[in-house]
Design goal:
6 helices, Rossmann fold, globular, alpha/beta
C-alpha cells in the first residue's frame, strides 16, 4: 500500500489560539484515521510551519506510525540566522525530534524558498494550510497554486 503524505504551508505571522489549534488537530486526526496519512512534510519556517510541526510531534504519541519530515531551503544556521533565541531553540528542538531532515542547499539563494515549497508539494497527497486568500502574492499562495496544479487536496484551516 502506498504511503499517504501531507505537507504544510502557511503564513509566518499568525495568531495562535485555541480555535486554530483545534482546527489543525481535527484535520490531522481526520487525515490519519480516515485517509491513512502517515508522513507529514514541513518547511521549518516560523509561524504556521512550527505550529504544524509541533502538532505532528504530539500526534506521534497516539499514532506511532506517524512521521515528521523537514525539508529546509538552506542550512539550519542560515535559516534561523535572524531569529530570536526562543524561536531558534524551538526550531532545533523540532529538528531533533523529526524523523528526517533534508537540507536542499547549504547556502541561501534567491528562489531557495520556492524550491523548498516545490519539494513539499512533490511529497504530498494532501496539504494542510493556513492561507488568507487575500494575500495572493505570498509564498503560501504560490504553494497552494502548486498544489492545485499537481492534484494535491488542499485543506485550508484559516477560518
Amino acid at each position: 500500500m502506498k504511503t499517504k503524505r501531507c505537507c504544510f504551508t502557511g503564513h509566518r505571522n499568525i495568531i495562535v489560539n485555541t480555535a486554530l489549534k483545534g482546527r489543525l488537530w481535527e484535520s490531522l486526526i481526520r487525515l490519519v484515521e480516515e485517509y491513512g496519512v502517515t508522513d507529514f512534510y514541513a518547511g521549518g519556517a516560523m509561524g504556521f510551519d512550527m505550529l504544524a510541526e509541533r502538532a505532528v510531534l504530539a500526534l506521534k504519541k497516539n499514532y506511532p506510525q506517524v512521521k515528521l519530515h523537514l525539508i529546509l531551503p538552506c542550512s539550519p544556521e542560515i535559516q534561523t540566522g535572524k531569529w530570536g533565541r526562543e524561536y531558534k531553540a524551538l526550531f532545533y528542538e523540532i529538528m531533533e525530534k523529526a524523523d528526517s531532515c533534508t537540507v536542499l542547499s547549504e547556502k541561501y539563494y534567491p528562489g531557495c524558498m520556492k524550491k523548498r515549497n516545490e519539494e513539499l508539494v512533490k511529497n504530498a497527497d494532501y496539504c494542510v494550510c493556513y492561507y488568507n486568500a487575500e494575500d495572493v502574492s505570498s509564498g503560501t499562495g504560490q504553494t497552494i497554486r502548486m498544489c492545485e496544479r499537481n492534484g494535491v487536496t488542499v485543506i485550508n484551516i484559516y477560518k
